[in-house]
Every structure is written in C-alpha cells, then in structure tokens.
C-alpha cells in the first residue's frame, strides 16, 4: 500500500527524470498534486515522460539539462521559479555509472566524468535550489547517494567516492539550512530494478541473482520504492529528519 500526500500548490524538481527512480518519483509527486519539473539529458525520453503525466491531467514541464554544467543547472532552477513561482521540493537524482576497474588502472577521464555528474552535479543542483529556498524560508531537498555511499566494493572506487561525497554535502548543508526552515536529506538506494542496473547486468558487471541474495529481503528493489522514500523525506511526515542518509537497500547495510 502506498502512502498518499497532498502536495497541491507545491512545486517539485527532479533530475535524472527520464527513467528509473527519477521518473518514478516525478510520477509520485504528480499523483500527489505537485507541479513537477522533470530534467534529464535524454530529451526524447523526457518529452515522453512529460506527455504521459500531462495526458493524465498532471502539471509537468520538461527541461533538458546537463547537471555537470552549473550554468545549465542555474537556468533550470531559475526557469522553474519563473514559470511556476516557487520551488518546494527537489530530488537531485541524476547520476551515472562508469565501467568497473582496478583502482590502480582507473582512467582519469572516467574519474572526472563520474565526479562531474554524481558529485558536482548534486552540489550545483543543491546550491541553486537553496538560493531559492532560503528566499522562501522553506523547502525540502533529497539528494541521491547510494548503497555505495555507505560501503565500499572492489573495482568501484571512483563511483563510491562520489556517493560518499554526496552524503558529506548533504550532512553539512543540512546543518547549515535547518535553522532556516529547509530540510536536506539523502536516500541511499541498494541494487534496484532500473535502466542503469539493467545495463550493468547486460554488460556482465552485475549478477542479479547474487545481488538479490546479498540483500536480506532476498530481491532487488524497485524504482517505486525509492520514490516512496523520497516523497516521505520531502513531506511533513518526516519533518524532524535532517541530514539523514537513509538506506533503502533491503537490509544490506544492516548485516
């Protein structure tokens, strides 16, 4: 059973919203009455997602954006406010995976790219969202870290470094902005049934049966389960949660 929220009159922004956890969260925001701005690099998939939402009677906008480019991020947030008047909730979800590599052999270009999207991208999004939210004196942000922000795994050093960094950003900014009426938390998905994970499986980089067995719950998670966690963290129901890195991982880190 899904919880229901009333976000009527609220504005939500989701990056990496063309598929997977981002799209599931955008759908959940929309069903809860929020006006939703969906952003992604994949313009065609983004338009398809927005058409789905608007045809169902929801208020949604598509804004292509590369979160690694701060100027594009600034324009994304400014455009959201110009169009919809405010910004109440954000899910900074855009992220990429890079090929597995021995830590001694990792390519510097891959390191720079994964940092540009997964860490600098979250930093830029949060920075510009906070500029609007501090003017309002209200808001809630959820940054997407990962199970990889809480543990280490062989051959994933650079990716895990970015996700650990997201938690550091989240905790520090949360302490700074909680007194100003703005809550910031992070969600840490385990191995989920998303396009990114499907691509890893197709490349032989992940054994889905082994991944499911590593979670005490005995299965992979779903994008919708992340969406439920994000909406809860952004809602008044989680009003006393500040600076939390919430594992949604089927019990992996509880072992």
Automatic annotation (TrEMBL):
Pfam families: adh_short_C2. Transmembrane segments: none annotated. InterPro entries: KR_dom, NAD(P)-bd_dom_sf, SDR_fam. Keywords: NAD, Oxidoreductase. Residues 10-190 form the Ketoreductase domain. GO terms for molecular function: oxidoreductase activity. PANTHER family: DEHYDROGENASES, SHORT CHAIN (PTHR24321), ESTRADIOL 17-BETA-DEHYDROGENASE 8-RELATED (PTHR24321:SF8). Belongs to the short-chain dehydrogenases/reductases (SDR) family. This is SDR family NAD(P)-dependent oxidoreductase. It comes from Streptomyces reniochalinae. The lineage of its organism: Bacteria, Bacillati, Actinomycetota, Actinomycetes, Kitasatosporales.
């Amino acid at each position: 059973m899904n919880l229901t929220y009333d976000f009527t009159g609220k504005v939500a922004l989701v990056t990496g919203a063309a598929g997977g956890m981002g799209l599931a969260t955008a759908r959940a925001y929309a069903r809860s009455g929020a006006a939703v701005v969906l952003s992604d690099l994949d313009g065609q998939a983004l338009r398809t997602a927005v058409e789905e939402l608007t045809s169902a009677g929801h208020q949604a906008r598509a804004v292509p954006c590369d979160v690694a480019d701060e100027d594009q991020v600034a324009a994304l947030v400014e455009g959201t406010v110009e169009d919809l008047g405010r910004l109440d909730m954000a899910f900074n979800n855009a992220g990429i995976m890079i090929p597995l590599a021995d830590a001694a052999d990792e390519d510097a270009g891959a390191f720079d790219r994964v940092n540009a999207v997964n860490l600098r991208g979250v930093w830029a999004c949060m920075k510009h969202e906070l500029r609007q939210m501090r003017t309002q004196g209200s808001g809630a942000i959820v940054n997407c870290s990962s199970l990889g922000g809480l543990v280490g795994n062989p051959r994933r050093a650079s990716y895990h470094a970015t996700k650990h960094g997201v938690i550091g950003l989240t905790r520090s900014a949360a302490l700074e902005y909680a007194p100003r009426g703005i809550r910031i938390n992070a969600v840490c998905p385990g191995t989920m049934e998303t396009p990114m994970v499907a691509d890893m499986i197709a490349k032989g980089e992940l054994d889905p049966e082994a991944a499911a067995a590593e979670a005490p719950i005995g299965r992979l998670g779903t994008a919708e389960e992340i969406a439920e966690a994000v909406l809860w963290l952004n809602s008044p129901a989680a009003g006393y949660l500040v600076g939390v890195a919430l594992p949604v991982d089927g019990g992996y880190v509880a072992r």
